[in-house]
Every structure is written in C-alpha cells, then in structure tokens.
Amino acid sequence: MTETGQDTYSELTIAGETVTGSAGDILTTVQAAIESHDPDILVCSTSEIVPTLYEMATAAGVDDFSLSRWPDVDYQQLASRSTYASYGRVGHSPARYNVPGRAIIDESNTFFYGETNLDGILDLVSRSKKPVQELAWASIGNVLTAIQICEAYDRGVLVPWNSWRHEFYKPMGALHDADRGGFIFAPEVGLHENVHELDFSSLYPNIICTRNVSPDVIRCDCHSDHKDVPGLGYSICDDRGYLVDVLQPIIDARDEIKAAIRREKKRDGPDEDRLAELEGRSGALKWILVACFGYQGFSNAKFGRIECHEAINAFAREILLTAKLLY
C-alpha cells in the first residue's frame, strides 16, 4: 500500500491499483483487496498507513473496517517514533505497528527489503529464525547475531546477554602491529596500459572459514606456542571454530545461488521472476557476509572479539602481498 496524502488519504495505491475519492470509497477498496487477497504480508510505503486508515474509518463511521485476520483484535503500536544520533548524524526511526495475523514491511524503515527483495528476506528468516516483520526492520548485525545464536543453540552453548569478551593484553609493539587495518597499494603515478583487476570472492568470510578464525579458538591456551597469524603470532586452536559453522553454509549457499543465476541467464528466454528471486537471495546473503568481518571488531557484538578482527586483516594483508608477487 502506498499513501499519497497526509492525515487522511484522498488517494491510495493498493495491489497496483490507485484509488481516489472519499474516505468511504478508499476504505471499501482497501477492505475488498484485503478480503480478496488475504495477504500474509502487508508492504506499506510507511507504517503510518495503518493507524491513519483506522482513524479514517472511525471518522467516517465505518465500524467493520479491519486489516487484521482477527477483526475483533485491533492493530497495536509496538514502538513510538524517535530520533537517534549515530556517528555524528541524527536519524529518524518511524513508529512500528502490528496487525494481528499479518506481517508488516514498512518501506521507509527497512534495510533488507530496500537492498534485496521479499525472497531475500525469507531466505534470512529461514536462517535466523526471526519473524518476517522483525527481520524487515532489523540491522545486518542484528540478523547476523540471530544466525549466530541459532548455531550456539545447536551446539548447546549458553548465549551471553551482553558482550563480555575483554581484549587480551598486548604490549604496545603488538598493538602497533595488530591495529593496522587493511592494506592499500601505493600506485605509481603515470599513465598505465594493460591494467588487470584481481577480485577475491568473499575474501574476509573465506579467510574466517579457511583459517579457522573464530572468537572461541583465537589465542587459545592449549596452543599458546603456535604462531598461526602472520605478523601477529596469535595462535589458533585446531578445534573448528563456531564462526566457521555460521558462515560456511552461507558462503556455500551464495555460491550455489550465483551459479544458478549464471545458468538461468544462459537460457533462451530466462525466467525473470526466477532471476529476481535468486538475485534477492544472493544480495541478502552478501550483506551478511560483508558485515561478518567488521562485526568482530564491534564492541557490542555478542560473539565478537577484536583479536579475530586483527587476525583477519593480517591474513588479508598476506594474501594481497602474495597475490602481487604471483601476478
């Protein structure tokens, strides 16, 4: 549903059909569309459509109007609108509403629906076990944490209420070596021909999985004599880390989806709906993989550890320098 008015609507688009007229006309059309389609999910340009329609119904004396699957249960407001400050910028968080029996996706307050599509959201729902409505407005880190919690549950591991892993002590020299971030080549100034690009597929997630970088195995006591991380000398336990089990299925699934996209595009007359589904799922998984590295260095991450962040960067620097020598 898309609104085009303010406190009351004189024009509304629902299921691709634009309706104009009195409040009664609009409410009748909305109610008919709800009863005809009986949708599980309401995608709204703004969730404020929900209370506004109910207010219009009250003002117009339309007593039987309802968006709910249980007409005797009214909509609920889950959270009020608010403002917040993040990294020096002030943002706005819209109010959130609930319609019993249906999920609401607010296009003005969703990351994943805007960056992917409904198929991408449903893929992440299956992995995170979060409800559709909650996942739609959740951040990448929130969804990643939910997926990690599922893995912890499968392992029978107690999930911490808050982040509790303190940073290991390290001398100033080690801190200088570790806190370096990624590596950027200094290009030679001038005009260059025959320039080649070398692209790594999911570099940081693959480093995590192939090098077994995980908060539960980095700098372990049982292998303190090992120096597994180049340039830093951190040890990594031989036991498989839980973060590997979180990310490897996502990496594998995205590789399979990308292969399916290539096959579909090679067909005569590719199925555009199928491509949209695959692209949405691939995009959703990509965002989780993009965030998995940075989230290790996030102070509030339940399963984060700064030493993992440092180790991933160290491995990445070594890979880039090796690639330069080889190519």
TrEMBL record:
Protein name: DNA-directed DNA polymerase
A Pfam cross-reference name: DNA_pol_B
GO BP term, pick one: DNA-templated DNA replication
Top EC category: transferase
Gene3D superfamilies: Helix hairpin bin, Palm domain of DNA polymerase
Native species: Halorubrum distributum JCM 13916
EC number: 2.7.7.7
Molecular-function GO term, any one: DNA binding
Domain DNA-directed DNA polymerase family B multifunctional: 179-324
Assigned keywords, A-Z: DNA-binding, DNA-directed DNA polymerase, Nucleotidyltransferase, Transferase
Reaction catalyzed: DNA(n) + a 2'-deoxyribonucleoside 5'-triphosphate = DNA(n+1) + diphosphate
